[in-house]
Structures are given as C-alpha cells and as structure tokens.
Amino acid sequence: MHQVSQPGSIVVLTGAGISKESGLDTFRDRDGLWARVRIEDVATPEGYRRDPQRVQAFYNARRRELSEGGVEPNPAHLALARLEREWPGEVLVVTQNIDDLHERAGSSRLIHMHGELLKVRCVRCARPLPWAADIEATSLCPECGRADVLRPHVVWFGEVPLEMDRILSALERCFLFVSIGTSGHVYPAAGFVAAVRDAGRARAVELNLEPSHGASLFHEVRTGPASVLVPAFVEEVLTSGAAF
Ligand code: APR
User: Fold this and answer.
1) Global pTM exceeds 0.90
2) Which of 129, 174, 243 is nearest to 11 (CA)?
3) Which ligand 1 atom sits nearest the alpha carbon of residue 97?
4) Where does the Deacetylase sirtuin-type domain lie (predicted)?
C-alpha cells in the first residue's frame, strides 16, 4: 500500500512585533512599553500586591485601546489565518501577545501563552472570563459575585505560561517553525527554536524587523516589517507545499 505522506504541521510563534503595524506597542523597542513603565511595577504578582490599582490602570488603558476601535488585524495576521485555511496539514499559532488580533483575522488554532487582555480571572474562582470593560475594585465576579477579586487574565513574570505541554508537543512534531515579531529575550518562548532544532525535524525561519537575540539558531532569518514578510512567506509555503 503506498504510504501517503501526511502534510507536515506548522507552528508559528508570534510576538508584539506582529501587532506593531496595527498600532499596538511592542515592549523592548525604543518606544516600547518597558521604556515607559517598569516590569516590576505592572507585570509581576509582587507589583500587583503592592499597588493593584496601578496594575489595573495599566491593563485598563491597554484594554480600552484594543476594544475602543481603530486597532485592526494587519496583513500579517490575515496571512496566518489564510495559512491555517489553505495549508492541508495542521497550523498552530502560539502567541505571546494578549491582543485579539489573531482571532479577529480568522486564526482559530491559537494558543495565548501569556493570557488574554479581553479576559479576567477571579482570584477566588480562578476561571478566565470574557471582559472588555475596565476592571474596578467594585467589579463583581460574574461567577461568585464577590467584589475586588478580578485581575487581568495575563501571565506575569514569575507566573507559569499557559498550555506549555500542548506547545512543546506541537514543536516536537512540526516540520516548519516560524517565529514572527519577537525579540527572543523572554523564556520559555525564546527557547522554542532550540527545542525545534533538538527535535531535528523542522526548518526554523525567523521573520522580524531585525535579527532577534536567538537569530543564529534559525535556518533562515528574513528582516523587514511583518505586514510585508508574512504574506510573502505564506504564499511561498502554500505554492511550494511540503517541498518547502
Ligand atoms: N514587523 C516585524 N517585527 C517587528 C516590527 C514589525 N513591524 N516592529 C517591531 N518588530 C520586532 C522588534 O524588532 C523586536 O524584535 O518585534 C520584536 C518585539 O520584541 P519585544 O518588544 O521584546 O516583544 P516580545 O518579543 O513579544 O516580548 C515577549 O515579553 O514583556 C514580555 O509578556 C511580554 O509577551 C511579551 C514578552
């Protein structure tokens, strides 16, 4: 019986750079978020315990920016949704981003490893719940009805990223790993390319405005804006198929 080779699976890692051309800030660029606020103050459990209002205000402003319109998926997000639709094998997008631009572009096989800005988590019920408004101390948990218990459903430094088992299994199996718009400074995402290289199966490609911290680990690095690189790359993958 002729063994029909299954089309390989593709894993795409995205970072803040893919949403930059949609108007959202990155973190470590000169004009990035961490040039304006300190990680310790707004993106750690200690910062939240020290001054919850300050942390809520930081995420309320980012949530308003995302939900009050004007921020739309760009051609890079749309190209990844096209890849999921048209590639015959599995395509999984693993994003470090907490915006909803991949969903709005049409990607459905998606993991938000650092959580989601448009969800909250009750410190009592621990369940993530959709939430587009500001979080106030008076905001009531829809599940348990208590006030002053809602925090952003965002993974802070020192907390455990989400769905790591599923991510590592996908990295192990894929034949193509693409990293887009991430500086390669924050683990575990920064270690994904090494995991792929260790598995010895996949081709690793980086699409970034400039070579990332981990660029030397990739088989190929293309530099430029994601809105230009990603649609061209997706077209190449779809036209060359598994021979890519
Ligand atoms: N197209 C492609 N890449 C871009 C663009 C663009 N238009 N603009 C910027 N970049 C690149 C930058 O060169 C940089 O390498 O995107 C990368 C953004 O890097 P960071 O700001 O460090 O963002 P990211 O890698 O996503 O950060 C990872 O760190 O602070 C935590 O939780 C936060 O998820 C975040 C994580």
Assistant:
1) yes
2) 174
3) 34
4) 1-240
